[in-house]
Structure formats: C-alpha cells, structure tokens
Design brief:
By secondary structure, the chain is mostly helical. The chain contains four helices and no strands. Helix 1 crosses helix 4.
Length: 133
C-alpha cells in the first residue's frame, strides 16, 4: 500500500513540475514579445538606447521608435517608396537594402498581428491570472 501512495505523490510532484514549466514558458513568451521587441527606450531596428526627443521634427512619422540613424534610413526608404526615381542618398542603399527594409517592416507588421491574435490574447489573460493581476 505504501508503494501506491509513493507513486501518487510522485505523480502529483511530476504534474506540479510540468505545470510550473508551462507557467515559465507562458511568462517567457510574453516577456520576450513585450520586453525585448516592444521596448520604448530602444531603437526598434538596431536596439540602441534612445535619447529623449529623438523622434521630433521628422518628415515621415515612424510606426516604431527609431534612433536618429535608423530614422534617417527609414525616411530615405519612405521617400524612395514614394518616389522610385529618386537616387539613393548612399551607394549602399541599393535594391537589396530596400528589400531589407521591406522585409523588416513586414516582420514587424506580422508581430503586431500576432499580438492581436485570439491565442496570444488568451495567453495574456492566462498569465495575468497566474500573476494575480
């Protein structure tokens, strides 16, 4: 009989450990999407720390926080999208450079869509319940 009870305790312990691991995965999924990819204090493209007021006075409003250099590149990208005949400001801002910006912006749009998905919102609710908020 004692062996049956020990097996039950082990089963409960394994279940609790698995639930704790699931909680850690849920919290980590949210942390990486919010803390790492949506930090308001760093450049969304290169990750450098932003100086206060770096976003003022730009011709094109950016959908993401950029440092001065990334914002200048974003402005050029936008100008060249709007005016394809416009020559590049720098020789290395070639067609592949344009594609890098296109794909980076598409990646950001997909992340935004994912954050609005019902499954992600469900995860958010579950973690809020876990944390008691």
């Amino acid at each position: 009989m004692a062996e049956i009870i020990d097996f039950g305790k082990r089963s409960d312990g394994a279940r609790a450990e698995k639930e704790a691991e699931t909680r850690r995965h849920k919290v980590e999924a949210l942390r990486s999407l919010f803390q790492c990819s949506r930090c308001a204090f760093k450049c969304a493209k290169c990750g450098t720390q932003l100086d206060p007021g770096e976003r003022s006075g730009h011709r094109y409003a950016s959908p993401y926080p950029f440092c001065r250099y990334c914002h200048e590149e974003y402005q050029e990208y936008r100008q060249r999208v709007d005016h394809p005949e416009r020559p590049a400001a720098h020789y290395w801002h070639n067609a592949l450079w344009m594609r890098v910006w296109e794909s980076w912006l598409e990646h950001q749009r997909r992340l935004d869509e994912y954050r609005r998905s019902k499954e992600f919102l469900q995860l958010l609710q579950e973690v809020e319940q876990l944390l008691g908020t």
